[in-house]
Amino acid sequence: MIASEPPDSCKVYTPRSLARAMVAAIVDGVDQRWLEPSCGTGSFLEALAGFGVNRKRIVGVDLDRKTSAADSLATVTRGVDFLDWSKTRKGRYDCVVGNPPYLPIRALHDPLRNTASNVVDVNGQPIGDRANTWYPFMVRAMEMLREGGNLAFILPAASEYADYASEGRKKLTQIFDRVDIIRSRRPLFDNVSEGVVVIIATGKGGTSKLFRRHEVEGLQAAIQQIGRIQRTNARNCPKLIKTRKPELVKFSDIASIRIGAVTGDSKFFVVNEEQRKQLCLPKKCLVPIVSRSKHIRLPVHDFRSWQHECDSGEKIWLFRPGQKHVDMKCVRSYLALSEDEGGCHKERFKIRNREPWYETPLPKHPDFFLTGMSGLGLWMCLNEHPQLNATNTLYTGTFREPLSRREKFTWALALLTSRVQKQIVRAKRVYADGLSKLEPGQVNGLILPEPPVISDAVSVYRRSANLFLSGCQQEAGRLADKFVFNQ
Ligand SMILES: C[S@@+](CC[C@H](N)C(=O)[O-])C[C@H]1O[C@@H](n2cnc3c(N)ncnc32)[C@H](O)[C@@H]1O
């Protein structure tokens, strides 16, 4: 064996089902950048491919030069010591996932031994050679993550009590929003009697400081428990938690809003599914839309919720044929109808001034919808339908920067905090006819607390928004305050 070859004793590969569950616990869309620091035969690379993460977004490293079929699913560098490679690459990844080698540092040959023992521990001192290799891997993995990043690692059971790991254990609960440890009473790997734990740490830089330890029987129970993490409560680490005083930001600094599409003649352009069928208009000539406040009384709109509106007879199609559709017989006939026959009022200002008259200008695919006309207050209906847009009875919003799914839900939660909802009540303009409305300018001027990283922002926002939309605004505000201000 040459000095820089991994000993066979550390080549224990993660069962695919476990790798999948661990990835599922920390994945958030397909845009995250992933690192697998000792990728072996690629169980985690395969799991990531299964979640649709592009190979260019995944970096794999392994000391073992022997290639694996899964190497094609990521950018893999082999024959390299991760602890050496990682020195210059800190803070670059959204997620680190893996099962690092468990080898006493003293048993390594140089240069691996020298590199591992000189990795700087979280207290600023070199780790030394009394530790096991998994420990410098964990310290480096925490450093490799960006703010908001997530870690999922399989570690030996000794990681819970080994003296050499005490600083790293403390750091783990200090720097992540939430840490879950899953300890299996039976070994998780064939042919290995040593016990292991799975660590799922989410939201680097978050302030909730939640911690939960789960003890389970074996592999299947561990997988189930990992899948339930988002839904199980965790306790606060009381010493670490403080009420937060967040920075304040103007709504217009995080998102831009505008009114939805102005058709000029909604009777002609906005139709329901039944009308579409009667007129024989092919779906490619229409855009799915929301056109009324009640369509967005939801935390999130996706294909299924839109289909539900569609099946309920709501007007959820915007007729908007492109040049290539206007020669189709049914489209031509609809465009040619006279006003008396249900045709378009083409003389109207908005319509006669656009070219071609039937192509209603559309806002860019919105990140969320708002209504200024609801008696309830203001909430974001996040848009997870790939084509959904809105007409001008609603406002459409786009975040100014590309955000992860979790970040979008976190901002939506900030809007539901009680302080922001109080501003909304004050900002509403009441018209002579008693109608109260929030204009785009007033939405833009709202001051929002900059929220911390909230690892389960998606489910917290859903809960808070559902309370809000069912009329329990105070409770919704309290829940949002709890997560945004740690109250
Ligand atoms: C426990 S196996 C896990 C492999 C893979 N992560 C999995 O879960 O299936 C540990 C892996 O670490 C690799 N390894 C050992 N020392 C390493 C080092 N210093 N840098 C990078 N990889 C290393 C081994 O070649 C082996 O593939």
Automatic annotation (TrEMBL):
Q: What is its EC number?
A: 2.1.1.72
Which example biological process does GO assign this protein? methylation
Pfam families under this entry? Eco57I, M_Eco57I_C
In what residue span(s) does the Type II methyltransferase M.Eco57I C-terminal domain sit? 244-483
Q: What CDD domains does this protein map onto?
A: AdoMet_MTases (cd02440)
Which molecular-function annotations from GO does this UniProt entry contain?
nucleic acid binding; site-specific DNA-methyltransferase (adenine-specific) activity
Q: Which residues form the Type II methyltransferase M.TaqI-like domain?
A: 78-160
**Keywords linked to the UniProt accession:** Methyltransferase, S-adenosyl-L-methionine, Transferase
The protein's enzyme class: transferase
Q: Which reaction does it catalyse?
A: a 2'-deoxyadenosine in DNA + S-adenosyl-L-methionine = an N(6)-methyl-2'-deoxyadenosine in DNA + S-adenosyl-L-homocysteine + H(+)
Q: Which family does it belong to?
A: Belongs to the N(4)/N(6)-methyltransferase family.
Spell out the protein name for this chain: site-specific DNA-methyltransferase (adenine-specific)
